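Re: folding output
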Amino acid sequence: MKNLEFAISRFAICSEPLECSPYGNGHINSTFLLVCDDNGNRRRYILQSVNTNVFKKPEQVMQNIEKVTEYLRPGAKEHREIMTLIPTKDGKSCYVDEDGKCWRIYDFIEDSICLEHPESTEDFRQCAVAFGKFQRDLSRFPADSLFETIPDFHNTPKRFADFLQAVENDAVGRAAFVKEEIQFLKDRVDFYSVLYNANKAGVLPLRVTHNDTKSNNVMLDAKTRKALCVIDLDTIMPGFSVTDFGDAIRFGASTAAEDEKDLSKVSLDLEMFDIYTKGYLEGCGGQLSREEIMLMPEGAKMMTIECGMRFLTDYLNGDTYFKTAYAEHNLDRCHTQLKLVADMEEKWDEMKKIVEKYI
């Protein structure tokens, strides 16, 4: 608690701290709701400790966030549309304590809600609009000026190489029990370089990407349910617009939970795919080329198979990366992703027709 209090004291908040308690259910950083007395009014902030096991260079994470938020701020119609960092007393974006913990404080976004899962198709569309607008607003930002805070995060060929190494090592003797899953991933080896090849060919540009495009990273206005802003900017890096789109589809247009055991419940909801596609491109405001748009289904399939690959890799390695609730948790997660990939392949022509109609 002393570390917490001392960290708070290092920031330029012009109010007296009243209480500080754990907030939200994020899996990476430690998050607290800080309530202060500001001349008789209660003012709220979000205090976070950045997970340095995931983000080895937190100062680079903070530099990325600073650059992007300051770039976006002049175009915002109101304060709530952009995350606002509170500087330290010596003008920095974060404070690193004597134990190496990196602390930061944001203004709390008042009169807003954050949904773990969309409660309606309009909620889902608003999330799509928000991430599309994120692309539009940063379309002229030099993506290569950002640090790669998690190297090779969506480098699917590299992920596949890591997977093959995990199969060979078979650290905990599980490979013999997942031969079908291993073969499924090996059979699609030619697909893993599709996006990188498109980039090399000049049809898929490098852009600023969010890399965690779930609905719980969009703040909606509590009254209107319209999108306010995108949050959780720790993984903003150079990347492809279609992978941001694809990760949202993988999570939001699936008909089942990520760890559903009954695979008959797992499929791609084409209506939700259509809704998100329309909202995303509406938010993008014409910034994506025809070629880029036509690669959106590839982005969806790539993120889904990559995620399944990562779950299986972790299962083979003995569950050392993802948090698991039971012994076969990562394998169940892998199964849902591979089933979703297979369903996408069956619906491929329909997916392509949907994105084409919005060009």
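--- second protein (sequence, then structure) ---
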Amino acid sequence: MTKNNTSDSSYTYAKSGVSIDAGNALIKAIAPLAKATARPGANAELGGFGGFFDLKAAGYNDPLLVAANDGVGTKVKLAIDYDLHDKIGIDLVAMCVNDLIVQGAEPLFFLDYFATGHLENGIAERVVAGIADGCKISGCALIGGETAEMPGMYADGDYDLAGFCVGAVERSEALVGQDVKAGDILIGLASSGVHSNGFSLVRRLAADKEWALQDAAPFDDSRTLIDTLIEPTRIYVQSLLPIIRDKKINALAHITGGGLLENIPRVLPNDCHAKVNADTWQLPALMDFLQEQGNIETAEMAKTFNCGMGMILAVSPENVDSVMQSLSDANEEATIVGEIVTGEKGCSVSGSGGTWGSDHDWESIFHG
């Protein structure tokens, strides 16, 4: 038999640490943010059990759906520790929509998952405002999400994020690497910073080296070091979508975890090898700082960070000039960084300073 509780107090969900009222207040507060992301096919209204999207209203005839989900990693811990919650949501959207655009897909709608120990609506609303900003930048609708208040699972003030995005591409425009061939030119699009990969190493360096993150960055006295690190991931969707629809891109690689060495091979046929010339661009000052502070080997840099390149395009030689012009018109910093050659599937990065690394064993990395 269970022991009788002599207390006359009545148990409630709120007393256990979960406030349904706070959750309802958050939904009410963020509803206008979601509504501002409305686009053809979605009205972005919140409150139902699910969100609808009308592909016909979005103008598709023979679409393939493409789905992606991702998080922000431990970059979110920097946002928490330094009360910089306003832009971390852009990272969340960027990590998903940039993965969709490499398939040729237009991001259509986005849902977020916000988990915390105790819901602080001021913070949650700032995070969701950033998510809404990311959706507007990429042209997709924020149609819903989930806020999970889980006392005991997270320390006070901590939270975590996940994002889920669905896009569509006409069947004839899908990018799956089938058009990549020897002779294609590789074009790199500049990153906005560390993006959202490698932050466990960044945070370890910050702690071990006792960086004063709120002081001016040693390489840029116009910004604090924390501002350079927290800079949101660049969203490339609107710059690339028109070029994809003109069928002038053969493949795209989003440079995330694994860096150049491990991401470019993901879009290559078995008989193609990517040769990247590291002398064609300057390693950004932030990346140079990280490498110097951690005495990081070049091969480790190439597999951990984007090293200044957030997206790589494979383009037929006859289309390079027009693609470069389109990217310039879209305010992208584009650089020709290498080429595709016949060879074993993989990627090599080298320059006058030596070889960053070479990945030939792609299958074991992703399927071993």
